[in-house]
Amino acid sequence: MTFGGWQKISLLDFPGKISTVLFTNGCVFRCSFCYNPGLVEPPFATTIKEDVVLKYLADRTNILEGVAITGGEPAIHSDLPEFLRKVKSLGYPVKLDTCGYLPHALERLIGEKLIDYVAMDIKAPLAQYAAVTRVPVNTDFILKSISMIMSSGIPYEFRSTLVDGVHSAENIVDMARLISGADAYYLQPFQTSTALLNPDFLSKRAPTRDKLEVTAARCRKYVKRCEIRG
Asked: Which of 5, 65, 130, 219 allows an S-S link to 226, with CB 3.0 to 4.6 Å?
């Protein structure tokens, strides 16, 4: 397996653990506000081979406490399960970041106990998924992944990156309703970036903090925990 990016040490990406973060190339969605445009569409500029990563992990079992796999969308890679088996053989727990659009792949990873924490992005209310992700969307896949994650027995979170003019307060509450009963839902304000998949979004902003605080309180009617992250 190969990777398109690597943050060797992180204190933030895997809750409660010092982790290394691996970024996979390729994604099923084309969200305008994507922060990692270089990981979405080929040609990909960076290729990091798994043997380099595995040696790094093997040499640092006394420092690192986990491995986070993000992207792009990691679940599109057929060799991900085999790579994760190698990571697990070194004793590391694994966190997966996913858009939730490949429930068959997610089912395998959960069933084979290859992931220990999963974070799924909720992009929009179901009726707006295709517009926000800019691809045709079978929303049954999203629903299946949500159900699978919530019944998996492993720690999980849902999160949404929120852009003013794209996500209204009602949209956000609808997304909380979509994951009704979930353990955790994080509202992530859109951050201005120098590189986005859609350059038209470089001038966009997040909803104000005050508005998000009010909306988060409304979301707590549906989820056990809703916080603003970032």
From this structure: 219
Cβ pair 24, 72 in contact under 8 A: yes
CB 230 within 8 A of CB 66: no
How far out from the chain centre does Cα 120 lie? 5
pLDDT band, very low/low/confident/very high, at 230 (cuts 50, 70, 90): confident
Integer Cα distance of 219 and 230 in angstroms:
17
Question: Does the pLDDT of residue 108 top 90, yes or no?
Answer: yes
Query: Residue type for 93, please?
Result: P
95 pLDDT more than 90: yes
pLDDT of residue 127: 98
Tokens of 61: 């079992």
Identify which of 9, 7, 116, 122 has the alpha carbon closest to the alpha carbon of residue 71: 7
pLDDT digits (tens, 9 = 90+) for 130-178: 999 999 999 999 999 999 999 999 999 999 999 999 999 999 999 999 9
CATH number for the segment(s) 2-228: 3.20.20.70
Cβ contacts of residue 14 below 8 Å, gap of 6+?
65, 66, 67, 68, 93, 95, 117
Q: Supply φ then ψ for residue 228, to 5 degrees.
A: -90, 125
DSSP notation for 14-72:
STTS-EEEEE-S--S---TT-S-GGGTSSSPS--EEHHHHHHHHHTTTTT--EEEEESS
Distance CA 185, CA 202 (A): 26
